[in-house]
Amino acid sequence: MIEVKGLTKYYGETLAVDDISFEIEKGEIVGFLGPNGAGKTTTLKILTCYMPPSKGTAVIAGHDIFENSIEVRRNIGYLPESNALYYEMGVVEYLTFIARMRNIPSADIRERIRHAVEICGLGDVVHKEIAELSKGYKQRVGFAQTIVHDPPILVMDEPTIGLDPNQIVEIRDLIKNLGREKTVILSSHILSEVQATCDRVIIINKGKIAAEGTTAELQALVQGKAIVYLKLKGDEAAITEKLKAVEGVDGVSVCDREPGELVGYLVEAASGVDLREALYGFSVKSKYPIFEMRRETVTLEESFRKLTAGDGGENAESA
Question: By C-alpha distance, which of 97, 102, 100 is closest to 73?
Answer without folding.
Answer: 102
